[in-house]
Amino acid sequence: MRLSELLAICRREMAGVRDAAPGEAEILVSAVTGIPRGRLFLSMDSDVGSPWERLSGMIARRSACEPLQYVLGAWDFYGREFLLSPDTLIPRPETEGLAERAVAALQRSPMARPLALDVGTGSGAIAVTLAAEVPAARVVATDISPGALRKARENAARNGVAARVLPICCDLLSALKSGGRFAVVVSNPPYVAEGEWLLLPTEVRDHEPPWALLAGRDGLSVLRPLIAGAAGLLSPGGEFWCEIGASQGEAVSSLPCGSLRLLGIFPDLAGRGRYVGWKKPERER
Fold first, then answer.
1. Residues 119 and 33 placed together within one structural domain of the fold
2. Could you tell me which residues come within 8 angstroms of residue 30 by beta carbon, excluding any fewer than 6 positions away?
3. What is the pLDDT of residues 5-29, one digit of tens each?
4. pLDDT tens for residues 181-205?
5. What pLDDT does 285 receive?
6. Is 238:280 a contact under the CB 8 Å cutoff?
7. In the chain, how many domains are there?
8. Closest to 121 measured CA to CA, from 163, 68, 77
9. For residue 25, what are the domain limits?
């Protein structure tokens, strides 16, 4: 079968998939043929064999509202590809902004070999990004899901940082002792309030892990203990960064933060308050 024929069939079938984004047919054909998406139109006359059985299975999964990222089994984040499973959240563009701030905080650390902590690592997207972008850094990555940690280990190995990323299975900070060791603590915690659950897209509610999304009545039940525990884990001058819901900025800025100093609420590319940072003083008062 020629590539042009395969792509035409895929486009026709994908036209009937509800909420499919433009370009998904090209993404799927690229995945099953191994031809980079940017080269598809230069390869229309290429013989691609008989990948239709695999492709039709992927189209069927999309027709059942399974997210494209899970169908592919991988997605890009911060310029790297991360393997995914139903145990991991899908890495989203706004979370790249969180990773960017955590990388910058880690680069500001005066430590020769700074230590970072990624709480609720999921696929390991943030932890691996920190280790890859700051070669001197070591990263502890925690998650309550053994399945998620398996993917985090795979992704660390795929990106060449397995020796500097330590996955730990635990609930938030429960396996860690205070002691002021971490230059940076970062988390994309659950922040969906119970009342917002039914407002989420069906693809999210039916396929992404609810334990990585839901956070009590106000969406802050996970963030509160993180703030309380971060002060004891950060080294003097260390920073704690989190992603929050777009409407949570005012509530988050009012949360007790002990010895930490609120750096502020910072917007994502759409102008919504999405990132919050705290800093531990250089000297305790």
1. no
2. 36, 37, 40
3. 999 999 999 998 888 888 999 999 9
4. 999 999 999 999 999 999 999 889 9
5. 53
6. yes
7. 2
8. 77
9. 3-64
